[in-house]
Structure formats: structure tokens, C-alpha cells
């Protein structure tokens, strides 16, 4: 079950989708789902619904609303196509930490007023570039975000990157789960180690797991890297995290 909504934000109107179980008869704990660089598309609608079916109301915003509404990748095309990807990279470049912060506030305001969502703590999950978004949202709203998860996250802890979430995760109060592809060129071992060290030093309750044999993008059914076994494990781990925190 899903519906489209428009969310007022400082930088415009965020077009988004809310997913609930088919038998929902009451407000449910909220989970924010950020898509990967490909934006809104069928495989992410399916992913959001699967999370919702475990007993949550899932809010999936269009992270590119400043530049376009709805799906950005044309039907029948791939976000990896050489004439599509430059547009996505351009749009992603507008998602500075400051822009993200304004969007986080708008999403939480939405959760507070929409009937599908119960009050209280929320969870957040991101994929690829938005694994960093999930960590940043949890760090900026430590009293509100009980759980943050990232899967095949990209560039979480690049050296000399002033915008890296590694600089803000020390304020996290919620639980963290990071599921990494062990063949991920966008998150080499040294970055994983750097993020783990910072989280451990800050006393954050976190789990890091390497998905053996998986490549970057292993949860995206429309990507060549899709790995059914790794995707199933990701859903299992995310369900466990949300069940234990929300």
C-alpha cells in the first residue's frame, strides 16, 4: 500500500511516497528510506514496501526534487547509461550537507503530521551515496533517530573530505548497522576501518558486516551487481535492527 505526498521544504516541495502494510489500521513507527544515486524507480518502491510489510510506515523522498520531480531515469533506461549518469551526478552535486540538513528537518516535520506515522523515534536507511545521508540524519537528530543503516555505502570516510559523515557521527545516540560489499571500489577497506574507529571511539552501538562476494549495488535489482543472496541478507539485518530499536 502506498500513496504520493508533497512535503513543504525550505528549498521547494519534496515529492515523496508513503508505504504501509496492506492491513495497517493504526499509525506505525516511521522509517525514512533514501534511494541510491538512481533515484525513485520500481526496485526502490518494491524495497520500501518490503520494509513496510514488517510493520512500519516508510517515507521515501525524491532526493532530487530541487531539479526534477518523480523518476529521473527514463523508463527502459539505466542509471548507469553514459548519457543518463551525468545528469544524476549533476543533481547529486546539489545535495550538500547543508541541503541535506534542511531536507531532514522537512521529513521529520512530515512524519509528525501525517496519519500513517506514530510519534516517537524513527529509523533511517540509505544506499550507495545515501548511506552517508542516513548517518548524517542520525547525527543531526540524535534524540529522534533510533536506528541508522547503510548498505553498499559510498565514500563514507574519504581522507581530507570536509563533508564526510565521519566528522559528525560522534554525536550519534541511536544504533548503526553498515552492510558493506567486500568488493566495493567506492568504499575501500581503509575507509571502512576509519569509520569503524570513529564510531567505536564515540561509543556508538554499531555493527559492520562485509557481504562476502558482493559488489557495489548488491541490493538494486536493476543493477548488474544485484546479488539475490546478499539482498535477502540485507533485508534480514535491517528488519532485525528496526525490530530491536523501534
Low-confidence stretches: none
Q: How many domains comprise the coordinates?
A: 1
Biggest beta sheet attributes: 8 strands, mixed
Helix and strand run: EEEHEHHEHEEHEH
Helix content: 25-40%
Seen as an oligomer or otherwise, the chain set is single chain
The CATH top-level class label = Alpha Beta
CATH architecture: 3-Layer(aba) Sandwich
How many strands? Answer: 8
Count of individual helical segments: 6
In round numbers, the mean pLDDT is 96
Strand arrangement in the largest pleated sheet: 1-2-4-3-5-6-7-8
Query: Which structural class matches the secondary elements?
Result: alpha/beta
Gyration radius, in Å: 17 Å
The CATH superfamily appears as: Alpha/Beta hydrolase fold, catalytic domain
Chain-wise SSE layout:
Layout: E1 2-9, E2 12-19, E3 28-34, H1 42-52, E4 57-61, H2 85-92, H3 97-113, E5 117-127, H4 131-140, E6 145-151, E7 175-181, H5 189-201, E8 206-211, H6 228-245
Parallel strand pairs: 3-4, 3-5, 5-6, 6-7, 7-8
Antiparallel strand pairs: 1-2, 2-4
Structural commentary:
- The protein starts with a strand and ends with a helix.
- With 246 residues, it is of the alpha/beta class.
- The chain has a single domain, classed as 3-Layer(aba) Sandwich (Rossmann fold).
- It has an eight-stranded mixed beta sheet with strand order 1-2-4-3-5-6-7-8, sandwiched between helices.
- It is built from six helices and eight strands, in the order E-E-E-H-E-H-H-E-H-E-E-H-E-H.
- A hairpin with a 2-residue loop joins strand 1 (2-9) and strand 2.
- The model has no long low-confidence stretch (mean pLDDT 96).
- 46% of the residues are buried.
Amino acid at each position: 500500500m502506498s500513496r504520493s505526498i508533497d512535503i513543504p521544504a525550505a528549498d521547494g516541495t519534496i515529492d515523496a511516497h508513503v508505504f504501509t502494510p496492506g492491513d495497517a489500521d493504526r499509525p506505525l513507527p516511521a522509517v525514512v528510506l533514501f534511494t541510491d544515486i538512481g533515484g525513485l524507480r520500481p526496485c526502490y518502491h518494491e524495497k520500501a514496501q518490503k520494509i513496510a510489510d514488517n510493520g512500519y510506515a516508510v517515507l521515501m523522498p525524491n532526493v532530487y526534487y530541487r531539479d526534477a520531480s518523480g523518476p529521473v531515469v527514463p523508463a527502459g533506461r539505466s542509471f548507469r547509461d553514459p548519457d543518463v549518469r551525468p545528469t544524476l551526478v549533476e543533481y547529486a552535486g546539489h545535495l550538500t550537507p547543508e541541503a541535506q540538513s534542511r531536507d531532514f528537518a522537512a521529513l521529520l516535520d512530515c512524519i509528525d503530521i501525517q496519519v500513517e506515522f506514530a510519534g516517537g523515534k524513527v529509523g533511517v536507511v540509505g544506499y550507495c551515496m545515501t548511506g552517508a545521508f542516513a548517518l548524517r540524519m542520525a547525527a543531526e537528530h540524535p534524540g529522534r533517530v533510533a536506528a541508522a543503516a547503510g548498505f553498499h555505502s559510498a565514500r563514507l570516510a574519504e581522507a581530507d573530505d570536509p563533508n564526510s559523515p565521519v566528522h559528525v557521527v560522534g554525536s550519534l545516540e541511536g544504533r548503526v548497522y553498515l552492510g558493506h560489499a567486500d568488493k566495493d571500489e567506492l568504499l575501500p577497506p581503509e575507509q571502512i576501518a576509519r569509520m569503524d574507529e570513529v564510531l567505536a571511539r564515540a561509543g556508538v552501538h554499531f555493527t559492520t558486516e562485509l557481504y562476502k562476494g558482493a559488489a557495489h549495488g548488491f541490493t538494486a535489482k536493476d543493477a548488474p551487481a544485484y546479488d539475490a543472496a546478499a539482498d535477502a541478507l540485507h533485508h534480514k539485518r535491517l528488519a532485525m535492527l528496526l525490530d530491536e530499536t523501534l
